[in-house]
Write a structure and sequence with these properties.
This protein has about 675 residues and is an all-beta fold. The chain has no helices and 55 strands. The protein has three domains: about 230 residues, Jelly Rolls, CATH 2.60.120; about 240 residues; about 80 residues, Immunoglobulin-like (Sandwich). The strands form nine sheets. Strands 21, 23, 25, 27, 29, 31, 33, 34, 36, 40, 43, 45, 46 and 48 form a 14-stranded mixed β-sheet that branches. The two termini are about 55 Å apart. The N terminus is likely disordered.
């Protein structure tokens, strides 16, 4: 899109501007045989591809248009790209791109939303024609917006969607604003999710940088021979946008056969009518293809509803009539179930051992899905939820990765992750967490949340199957916002492998016997304060909370710098570490750090000099010893690294820690009055 403006005012390089190039365009055609969902995922585009509207990607068009009145007379006001290059977000030149990770066939279509001279708007459109013999009553639109570059600008960092209908028999000639009266679809507007993070490329496929929206255009009434254009748009302006935004996984579903529940017997064909007011015809069967069934009413029971058929589905509620539907896990419904804005789907435990036959479809951002089983274990289905509520005593276990846009409520229940992730998108909230209601990280799965740079604490209510071990993160460094993922596992180890499994025997001396795994989505620029919490039952018998500190495992070893000492509380306890800029396993240790005592004793007092030292130390006693002194040097996790004996009659003994990593060590002298010294190895 830079090509539209760069130098065109002063150098007159209008040859770069190719005009609209959209007259006489073809379109995707719905026929009686193909009245099925249109799908476009942009996958498989080569590194750089010559682009022509409707040829390179059938049915897809691209156009950039300068704002009204900003171009001098005689200069072109539109630009259509001739080539589309691959971009992983690292190329910040303003133009159209197909985005994706390097070497991947998974692509998304969009651009870097920036210009150099004047403001403009970039468009991507998909054009449709109803060539069937029936009226398309409703049109469902679903797509994903992905952010591949963060410019740090957020004023107009968003993607909007609108549509244009032509008269029967007419064609839609262009994408630009003068093509006709475009009708905006506010429910499909998506703001760029990662504008407060560090200015850099982003992984647009990551849940934190991706948003899915879906809406049904009710009563669109697309007649036979009539066209419609769906248009995505974003502002091209370096001062208010400049982000790399794209669209992906577009699904446009024509709905010609829709039926509304008009009576309480959901399993009876006569209870369904073709008009929302309860009039019209009933369906011939529940098994035909391409049917949509809208459940409306209060506390609807669909236990007798047996819907199947290709491209058919069940929708809970309408925009004007939110509905609450209760089903069992093994319902007879064999199609996707959508939940509209304001509606609720309650899933109780299965009445038999058969697995669920339905799957969750499009869930509106302000819809609710609740798993309310009290007996049999429930599987939380993979989906992009609006509000997710877990209630009842039955275990709730992830069956795949989930994303939450609204809230996660743990209403007397735990969520077990197993090997899957639960991602709360920016702005989503956790509700009703408690030492008995938390996220159990019983595998490799992680709880993922955004930690902003506003110095507000973000609670990660995680734990093992037996113990609640929450983590709280906060940070205030400008542009440090990032998505953090957290899990906790039993035991602490001296070493971990690349898969974060403990190596060797678990530590058993003065430690909390747990390991917290904390990481950030984009490395760099974070400066985090971390608070870890644990109960007494999670510690070794010799653990002293007054001497606890948070330790960090990196570069193959635990660091041994105690920035702050002592746990807060009387049980459960917590300890905080600040200034964290890199992430990997974290643990809590409690090595003794008492200064040498001056109590009366026949045993001489000792010191260690120099302290700190780069490796060589001397053990110095206040007087010659009458008996040999025995002592050990321990690292921060209580592992013995050296044993020292000072002979009778000696006052100085040299020992060497040169081969040990830098950090905090403890020298413990045994005897009638044990003494402990803190040693810092540089």
């Amino acid at each position: 899109m830079k090509k539209l403006y760069a130098g065109c005012l002063s150098l007159g390089i209008g040859a770069l501007l190719l005009g609209t190039a959209t007259n006489g365009l073809a379109q995707h055609i719905f026929t009686d045989d193909t009245l099925t969902p249109y799908k476009q995922n942009f996958d498989g585009l080569p590194a750089t591809v010559a682009f022509r509207n409707n040829l390179t990607l059938p049915g897809v068009y691209a156009l950039a248009e300068a704002d009204a009145g900003v171009m001098p007379a005689g200069y072109p006001t539109t630009y259509t790209p001739t080539t589309i290059a691959a971009n992983d977000g690292s190329n910040v030149a303003a133009d159209y791109f197909h985005f994706g990770t390097e070497g991947s066939t998974d692509r998304a279509f969009g651009g870097i939303a920036s210009t150099q001279i004047v403001s403009a708007t970039g468009y991507v459109g998909i054009r449709f024609r109803n060539s069937s013999s029936v009226t398309i009553r409703n049109l469902e639109i679903q797509y994903a917006m992905e952010q591949w570059y963060n410019s740090g600008r957020q004023d107009q960092a968003q993607v909007g969607v609108s549509y244009l209908k032509a008269a029967v028999g007419d064609t839609i000639a262009a994408l630009n604003r003068d093509a006709g009266t475009w009708t905006p679809i506010p429910a499909l507007t998506v703001e760029a999710p990662s504008t407060a993070t560090v200015v850099s490329s982003r992984d647009g496929n990551a849940p934190s940088n991706r948003r899915v929206r879906q809406v049904t255009l009710d009563d669109i009434a697309l007649l036979p021979g009539q066209e419609i254009m769906i248009r995505w748009e974003y502002v091209l302006n370096s001062s208010t946008n400049g982000n790399g935004l794209s669209i992906d996984d577009v699904v446009i579903t024509p709905i010609a056969n829709s039926f509304f529940l008009a009576a309480t017997q959901t399993g009876s064909l006569s209870s369904w009518k073709s008009n929302a007011d309860g009039t019209g015809t009933s369906p011939a069967s529940f098994t035909a293809d391409n049917q949509t069934f809208y459940l409306v009413g209060n506390n609807v029971d669909a236990s007798a509803l047996a819907v199947s058929g290709a491209n058919s589905k069940v929708v809970v509620g309408t925009l004007s009539k939110p509905t609450s539907l209760t089903i069992a896990n093994n319902t007879l419904i064999q199609t996707p179930i959508d939940v509209t804005a304001g509606s609720t789907l309650l899933i109780r435990e299965a009445a038999a051992t058969a697995p669920a036959t339905f799957r969750l479809g499009a869930l509106a951002p302000n819809s609710t899905v609740a798993y309310v089983g009290n007996q049999a274990e429930q599987t939380v289905l993979p989906a992009n939820y609006g509000h997710l509520r877990l209630a009842g005593q039955a275990p709730k276990t992830l069956g795949g990765n989930i994303i939450i846009d609204g809230s996660l409520t743990l209403d007397g229940a735990q969520l077990r992750l197993h090997q899957y992730n639960a991602t709360l998108n920016r702005g989503a909230r956790l509700r009703q967490t408690h030492p008995t209601n938390y996220v159990v990280t019983d595998g490799s799965g992680q709880l993922r949340q955004t930690v902003s740079s506003d110095d507000q604490p973000v609670l990660f209510p995680v734990g093992t199957a037996q113990v609640y071990l929450p983590v709280t993160l906060r940070q205030s460094k400008p542009r440090s916002e990032d998505v953090f993922q957290v899990r906790v596992a039993d035991q602490a180890y001296a070493h971990y492998d690349a898969q974060e499994y403990g190596v060797g025997a678990a530590l058993t001396h003065r430690v909390v016997q747990k390991t917290w795994f904390v990481s950030e989505e984009v490395a760099g620029n974070s400066d985090v304060s971390m608070t870890l919490q644990w109960p007494t039952a999670a510690t070794t018998a010799d653990f002293d909370p007054a001497r606890a500190f948070v330790a960090h495992y990196h570069n193959g070893n635990w660091d041994q710098t105690a920035a702050s000492l002592g746990a807060a509380g009387t049980g459960p306890f917590s300890a905080t570490r600040t200034g964290i800029t890199s992430f990997s396993p974290f643990g809590v240790t409690a090595q003794a750090i008492a200064l040498p005592t001056t109590a009366a004793t026949s045993q001489p007092l000792v010191t260690v000099v120099p302290n700190p030292s780069s490796g060589r130390f001397e053990l110095v006693t206040t007087s010659a010893t009458h008996t040999a002194l025995q002592g050990v040097v321990l690292d921060a996790l209580g592992r013995e690294v050296l044993r020292i004996t000072q002979p009778t009659g000696s006052q100085r003994t040299t020992f060497d820690l040169s081969r040990q990593p830098a950090g905090l060590y403890l020298f413990r002298l045994s005897g009638e009055t044990p003494q402990t010294l803190r040693i810092v190895k540089q």
